[in-house]
Amino acid sequence: MTASAPPRPHFHRDRVIRRTLPTALLTLALGLVLGAAGTGAARATHPHYLRLLRQGTFALERGEPDAAVRDLRLACFGFLDEPPLLAQCLVRLGLAQAGAGDDEGFRETFRRVVEIEERFGAYAAADVTPEERDAFETQIAARIPPRTLEYSSVFKRLAETPETAAGTDSAATEADRGRGERSGASPSASDRDHRSNGTRGSDAGTGRTDTAPGTAGQAPAGAAELSSEDRRDLDRARRLLAAAVRRSDLDQPLTLARRVADANPNSREAQHLAAVIAYRASRWQEAVDYFRRGGDPGEDNAESLFYYAVSLYESGDREAAADALRRSLPHLEATPFVERYRDRILGSGGDAGPSGNGGIQ
């Protein structure tokens, strides 16, 4: 008798599905977890780039631009997928390159900033201090040709001043105008008598008033006469202000401007330059004192009038700050910095001008 084959087990499909489905789901979930872990592992170097960013920033603040360039250049590679953080890194890299005298590197950094700003609005969103932004725009104005700036919707405001057109003091004056823009002070188009971004009849942000194009380094008409030494120191203070990258860079020009202003109490030019530098250094009460000694800047020097308003507010004189701000706002463009101080000083209504929008046109 032939032995029969052992019976084959009978599988029910639904039973197999019931038994294997939980395992399959568990496997899938585990795969997703491992995949996420793998992604996290791939990004585990991100703290490394943040550490490089910090190291580069510290090196920049210590006045070691070469070390800052090295760390920040590496750090920027880690932020290619995070445009605002990349913009922060590039701004500081640009400042370090400027400090190291690397013009070619600065131009390349500027090109990258323009690109990510136009694509993502990253420069506007970058978490940098007002001082860093001011300093970066100062270096842009001094190092990037005006013709190049005119192609950038963001930076074309730095491209031209009356002094640039006259061929004198272009870098220093335009740099200060760039700082004025970041400090919230840029005149409206209707007030550009010289078809430029400067205020009428003034070198905004430099403390110089009533200076005609082509007369850089000369005393304004009707100003108190300065000795040749005082004139030399005042002009040097203005150049140092234009080249300042860090807040500590303001110490020397402020010392020079103070000396000249204190020795010449009737010189409006010297008082206002000392006031502007004190404002840049956040020495609010000192800025107020020098502005008062030099006389109210007036609407024709709207940027300095805005600086005066901010200094008054920060030193506790809100009523006087509101008056100065109301007079300056109709002549300023609506930058975020202007709007922030408008809301702080006047309230969110910003009842400063006849247009009903805080006077900003």
Describe what this molecule looks like in 3D.
It is a single chain. The longest helix is centred in the N-terminal third of the chain and has 30 residues, at 13-42. The chain contains 17 helices and 2 strands. The radius of gyration is 29 Å and the shape is globular. It has helices at residues 13-42, 46-61, 65-77, 83-99, 103-120, 122-125, 130-143, 146-149, 162-166, 170-182, 228-243, 251-263, 268-280, 284-294, 302-314, 318-328, 336-346; strands at residues 202-203, 208-209. By secondary structure, the protein is mainly α. Strands 1-2 form a two-stranded antiparallel ribbon. Helix 2 runs parallel beside helix 4 and helix 4 crosses helix 7. A hairpin with a 4-residue loop joins strand 1 and strand 2 (208-209). The protein folds into 2 domains: 46-128, Tetratricopeptide repeat domain (Serine Threonine Protein Phosphatase 5, Tetratricopeptide repeat); 158-217 and 225-346, Serine Threonine Protein Phosphatase 5, Tetratricopeptide repeat (Alpha Horseshoe).
